[in-house]
Amino acid sequence: MKKKILIVIALLAVLVLAITCSGCAEREKDLVVFIPKSKNSSFWNAVKTGIKSAVSAYNMDILISAPDEEDDFVTQNVLIENAINMKAQAICLSAIDYEKCGAMVDKAIENNIKVVIIDSGVQSKKPLTVIGTDNKTAGAKMAQSLLNIQGEINIGIINSKAYSKNLQDREEGFCEEIKEYSRMKVVEKVSIDMKSSDAEIEATKMIKSGKVNAIVTFNEIMTIGVGEALRVEDRRDIFCVGFDNHKKSVQQLEEGYVDVLIVQNPIAMGYMAIEECYNQLKNISKSGINRYTPSYVIDRSNMYLPENQKILFPIIESAY
Amino acid sequence: MKKGNIGEKVKKKKTISLSTLFTLLIVFVVVFSITLSSVLTTVQSSRSIRDTAKISTEQTIKQVAGNLDGYFKEINDILKQAKEYQTVPSSLTNYLKAVIYARKDILVSIIYDENGNIKEKFDTFNPITPVNPETNLSFNKEEFAKLKYNNIFISEPHVQNMIKNEYPWVVTFAIRLEDDLTTPANIVTFDVSFDWIANMINSIGLGQNGYAYIVDDDFNIMYHPKQTMINAGIEQEIKLNNKFINNTLIEDEMVYSSRSLYNIDWNVIGKSSLKGIKTNQMVNAIINISITTILSIVLGILGLLLFRKFLSMPINNLIREINAFEKNFDKFEVDKNITVEEFRDLSNSFSEMAFNLQRYIAKIEQDKNVLMKTELKALQWQINPHFLYNTLDSITWMCEHGKTEDAVKMLSALARLFRISISRGKELISVSKEVEHAECYLIIQSYRYKKAFDYTFEVEDKVKNYLCNKITIQPFLENALIHGMSPVDEMHIDIKIFEQDEKLVIQVIDDGVGMSEEQVQKLLFDSESDNKGIGVNNVNKRIKINFGEEYGVKIDSEMDEGTTVTIYLPIIKDDEGK
After folding, report:
1. Is the pLDDT at B180 greater than 70, yes or no?
2. Selected residue with higher pLDDT from B13 and A261
3. Which backbone phi and psi does B501 adopt, to 5 degrees?
């Protein structure tokens, strides 16, 4: 008799515990760690805006940590490791180095953390979802924009030393497309550290060499540097195709130094990345299916059209 | 009847159904109540959530609209003030400078001529690069041409492209200042930073998936927190129609509330989602019901166990005892170990009954023994050797002395006596036969005692056919002859048989010497009789055992007066006979 009563009471206690625990567990918010390539570019600030908007919509917690330089993959690996140690539920990552960040990403996946890639991916064992611009297509669009130039097109390419997937893809897409046009030729290619000053130096060299009448580069930092070089040398005649819509680049576009900007939709990228984290955590979607955000070809003729205003000048959180 | 088995079966069935019924009842009642109340609560609360959502959305949007209205009015008023200063150009300039300096949200102020050429410009932080009227996004030639004097035009939000290195979003407020003959008409504009408005809209919380946005009267989006997503084609905003203006509606599980602004043809729309609330509620209700069901089952089981301990176990024990008693009632002893009060009373009654039953059975056994003994004795006496020898002796003497007539009479009486004594084994004989038996005895004894006594028989007619025990009267006659006779006088014996008070009464009345009380007692209760006769005691016992205590022998005697023996017997009519 006594035994039976004891068993019943024990069962009751277990039941109550289970209910309380499950209730508690549910109320915890999922933690997402966002690790972009750097802290300071307007591109990443725009991504941040999208991320913050999605995080409040999906009721999650967000932690943003980034290296200071866009080629510091060592720090980025440390940050990924930190995210693993703090037992985050998901990581949104834009990898600085395709190969060198791969191992840490694999480790995160082994620890049951969902990893969603923004823009620039890694070489990982398991397939990852990449959210970003279709970089190869963007590269192709850059090539096509060069058609505005008459005659022979001698192209100088400035790209990053670090193996960033997005930059590689853009260059690949560009180079593939060029093959279609016999008058387009890459005459010079330079790899630099990820600093706009370095870009400026190399661009200046290219300008002064006189070999090129078009300079092509593939991200915001390098575009700013190239544009600045062109302004300093006052060479509106050299056709410049760059990436992203930093205020300086837009100014340079307006002034005639930069001719074409490929503008992405970083806010959408950030928003969709968080959405994808949420879906993967709730098992609504599986890893490996990429989602593309559009890219736009902006030049002086269309930059102030109302629809392009919204893309070129997205409203980002300000000091208010 | 089978003992034990049936009892056990019945016992088990009873326990299960009672306890289980009890438990099931509790569980059912609780689960039903909780389910009903959960369902009702869910329905009611989801209704009230909808109402609350509707009201709170409406109130939030009202407030936002109020804030926006207030803001726009402020700017309008500041712009309108300009007309106070227009007559004196320098004072207008000073006013506009002051405004720019004081208001960080008014980024740029420009005075245009009719054609869009910039006459004067004011700004605080960045120098303005003048641009052509065609590329100047702040100069809307068409709209400005339509402007009436002292009226204000407010533009759509757009990028301000005149500030070096800055491309802020602004809304342009333009006023056409009054014309007078000397001064050409001027258009004074403010480019007001849209940041404040955008951030306010962004920060509006309307539940988990809710937000606010601004549209014009044609439902073109002026500002939307997910603008870039909409531009990228990733999301879309539903096209609403006129019925939503200044209204709060619930459609497709979404709450829409809209409010027009006064100062500008814009509407603020708030949108919040009710999706998932219903599911959430149902999930909660289901969780509630499940938890309560489980708990109530657990409690029910506890109750069942308690019930078992305090109710059905005592009943089982009692039944077990009854069974044990049934099997072996002689040696049964009651278990005094019962705790529940009501069951103790029941158990005590039972043990008392058991005890009484044992005693009763013991008594019956005893009586049976006595009866057997007495009947054996009576049986033995049916052929009483002693009496036989004496009578035969008498008959022999009579034959030897030639009194053949008397011998024949005695023989005949003897034969009749014994025949009736045996009566073919029957215990009950008719009264007339018993009378004959007594008479034969008296006849025989009268030869032997030679006129020492005489006798009469008075028998009611109706009792002659009643039945009675055989050899009832004779022992008393014997007794009277042995103890009652005086050596001197002649004794008279009366035998009366009649019906009285529904009893058969036999009286043997003699006027002999009588007996003392002591002798009477000895006679009635001493099982041995002197003369090796059957004994009065025997007769009494036989009557009482066979017929009950209310019948039997009563002896009244007075010394020297006589003895009256009254025998009470039940009325047994012939068809009942054994």
Report:
1. no
2. A261
3. 50, 45
Distance from CA of B370 to the nearest CA of A (A): 54
Q: Which of B190, B207, B213, B223 shows the shortest CA–CA distance to B107?
A: B190
Contact A268 B135 (CB under 8 A): no
Residue B135 and residue A306: Cβ atoms within 8 Å?
A: no
Contact between residue B560 and residue B513 where contact means Cβ atoms under 8 Å apart = yes
Whether B202 contacts chain A with CB within 8 A: yes
Chain A CB contacts of B225 under 8 Å are: 53
Q: Which of B289, B237, B222 minimizes the C-alpha distance to B33?
A: B289
Range B398-405 contact pairs with CB under 8 angstroms and sequence separation of 24 or more = B398/B447
> Which position has the token pair 């039972």?
B350
| CA distances in angstroms from B298 to A4, B27, B29, B286, listed in the order given | 12, 9, 14, 18
Is residue B529 a contact partner of residue B535, using CB atoms and an 8 Å limit? yes
Interstrand relation of B266-273 and B211-216 (parallel, antiparallel or unpaired): antiparallel
What DSSP designation does B309 have? I
Q: Residue A276 belongs to what H/E stretch?
A: helix A266-281
B7 touches chain A (CB under 8 A): no
Strand order from edge to edge, sheet including A214-217: A184-192, A153-160, A214-217, A239-243, A260-263, A296-298
Please check whether residue B229 touches A, CB under 8 A. Answer: yes
Cα separation, B480 vs B512, in Å, equals 7
Please give the sequence-ordered ranges of beta strands (E in DSSP) within B226-364, or none if there are none: 248-251, 254-260, 266-273
Q: Backbone phi, then psi, for A162, in 5-degree steps?
A: -65, 150
Any idea what the Cα angle at residue B250 is, between residues B248 and B253, rounded to 5°? 145
DSSP assignment letter at B243: G
CA distance A273 to A268: 8
Length of chain B: 578
Residues A45-92: tens digit of each pLDDT: 889 988 887 887 788 999 999 998 888 889 999 999 999 999 999 999
Chain segment B66-79, per-residue pLDDT in tens: 999 999 999 999 99
Backbone angles phi, psi at B195, to 5 degrees: -50, -50
How far does CA B231 lie from the centroid of its chain?
67
For A271, the closest of B135, B137, B229 (CB atoms) is B229
pLDDT of residue B2: 44
Cα→Cα distances B370→A134, B376, B550, Å: 123, 10, 18
pTM of the model: 0.59
For the question of an ipTM over 0.90, the answer is: no
Q: Which residues pair with A298 in a beta bridge?
A: A261
Please identify which residue in the block is written with the tokens 């575009």.
Answer: A223
Q: On the CB side of B151, how many CA atoms lie within 13 Å of its CA? A: 9
